[in-house]
Amino acid sequence: MKASWDIFCSVVDNFGDIGVTWRLARQLVAEHQCAVRLWVDDLRAFEKICPQIDIQQAQQHQDGVEVCHWPAEWQSAVAADVVIAAFACQLPHAYMEAMADRARAPLWLNLDYLSAEEWVSGCHGLPSVKFRGVQKYFFFPGFQAGTGGLLREAGLLERRRRFQGDPQARNNFLEQLGVFPATSARLMSLFAYENAGLAGWLDALATDVQPTHLLVPEGRILGDVQRWLGVDSLAAGALQVRQSLTVQVVPFVRQEDYDRLLWCCDFNAVRGEDSFVRAQWAGRPMLWHIYRQDDDIHLDKLEAFLALYTRALSPGAKAAVLALWQAWNTEAPMGQAWKNLLQHWPEVVAHAEQWCLEQGLQADLAAALVQFYLNWI
Ligand code: TRH
Question: Is the pTM higher than 0.70?
Answer without folding.
Answer: yes
